[in-house]
Design brief:
four-stranded antiparallel β-sheet; Aspartate Aminotransferase, domain 1; 374 residues; Aspartate Aminotransferase, domain 2; single chain; alpha/beta; seven-stranded mixed β-sheet; 2 domains; globular; 14 helices; binds pyridoxal-5'-phosphate
């Protein structure tokens, strides 16, 4: 029987969709719980919410919902450029920074091309490669840290893109300036290097890769308002690239990809240093607390510089499900080839304590074996 689906791209039919963190409302429905009893520590969201200034700006902009947004996003792109000592021409907005990955695919990938990532890289890189029929080459990451030498060695004439998430999700690890500089000295001209800095603002001592944008190298740096700014729901992020590259990416996007409410919230949030500092402090304290409690419980974890921690619990799926039943949403890691780990986002101190209490109950009930190595 001939089917319309036989006309679809095979690489699209083979795609396995991204599995997001479970929304609070969905779990409430499934388990018969009150949404207010549920805590979500599954998607690295900001437990403080958006900045009050961002909320006000978005409320004001709601009144103008009948107008199309500024498709060129002049105000926000200028503000980002000014803050980072770049030019507006270097900045491209995405419907979430994830959309920037798609733009790069549209512009540069064709079937048969290769995309180099770390072994435990953010899932969306592989998804987007598949969308364009490209092949992902995953390079082992000993100690859960990107091995830039090995990634360089994995580059072939077919390589078009190489992703460095810094810090990486789901591992929370960072590669430092020296390793990056050595890598950038040797990476061939036919490879576009993408630095994904979704958690940049959480770092105490961030490496500088914007110098490579200013030096007109083949790089795209991605950042987002989803994490430190607490605007994940709005879907707004950005890419920073040399003008000649940004200009090509601009051609791949829809005219109004970043909505006006998101633009207004992002612009106000960008200026709210107080909210960012509070978020950073809450994250540091919460992460220290979680890591100290894991140590007490004899659990192996990957020391993190981001707003989440990867921790080894034995049967990750079982622990994930048991926590769900108790109204605590974390992330199971089987899809990241880490079936005995879970990833937990840093929440408010109250949420962190509740998570640890539930985890201790599971430990006492013998649900997971502690201190096991991978
Ligand atoms: C959360 C995250 C993003 C951000 O995605 P948005 O589309 O901006 O919400 C990008 N990269 C990594 C590695 C992330 O963890």
């Amino acid at each position: 029987m001939s089917s319309i689906l036989s006309n679809a791209h095979k690489h699209i039919l083979d795609l396995v969709a991204y599995e997001p963190g479970k929304p609070v409302e969905e779990l409430a429905r499934e388990m018969g719980l009150e949404p207010s009893q549920i805590i979500k520590l599954a998607s690295n969201e900001n437990p403080l919410g958006p900045s009050p200034a961002a909320l006000q700006a978005m409320r004001d902009t709601l009144e103008r919902s009948h107008f199309y947004p500024d498709g060129g996003a002049w105000a926000l792109r200028n503000a980002i450029a000014e803050k980072l000592d770049l030019k507006r021409e270097n900045v491209i907005l995405g419907n979430g920074s994830n959309e920037i990955i798609e733009f790069i695919g549209h512009a540069f990938l064709k079937p048969g091309d290769e995309v180099v990532t770390a072994g435990h890289a953010f899932a969306v890189y592989n998804l987007m490669a598949q969308l364009f029929g490209a092949r992902t080459v995953e390079v082992p990451d000993p100690g859960f840290t990107h091995d830039l030498e090995a990634m360089l060695a994995a580059v072939t004439p077919k390589t078009r893109q190489l992703f460095i998430a810094n810090p990486n999700n789901p591992t929370g690890t960072l590669v430092g300036q020296e390793a990056i500089d050595r890598f950038m000295e040797r990476v061939p001209e036919h490879v576009l290097v993408i630095f994904d800095e979704a958690y940049f603002e959480f770092l105490d001592n961030p490496p500088d890769v914007l110098r490579y944008v200013r030096e007109d190298r083949n790089v795209v740096v991605m950042r987002t308002f989803s994490k430190i700014q607490g605007l994940a729901n709005l879907r707004i992020g950005y890419g920073l690239a040399p003008a000649r590259i940004a200009e090509v990416l601009q051609k791949t996007r829809q005219p109004f990809n970043a909505n006006g409410i998101a633009q207004a919230g992002a612009l106000a949030g960008l200026r709210d240093e107080v909210h960012m500092r509070r978020t950073r402090e809450l994250t540091h304290d919460g992460r220290n607390y979680l890591e100290a409690e894991f140590t007490k419980m004899g659990l192996t974890f990957v020391p993190s510089v981001a707003n989440f921690v990867l921790v080894q619990v034995g049967d990750g799926d079982a622990v994930f499900k048991a926590l769900l039943k108790r109204g605590v949403i974390v992330r199971a890691m089987r899809s990241y080839k880490l079936p005995d780990w879970i990833r937990v986002s840093v929440g408010t101190m109250e949420q962190n304590r509740r998570f640890i209490e539930e985890l201790e109950l599971l430990n006492k009930a013998g649900l997971f074996k502690t201190g096991k190595t991978a």
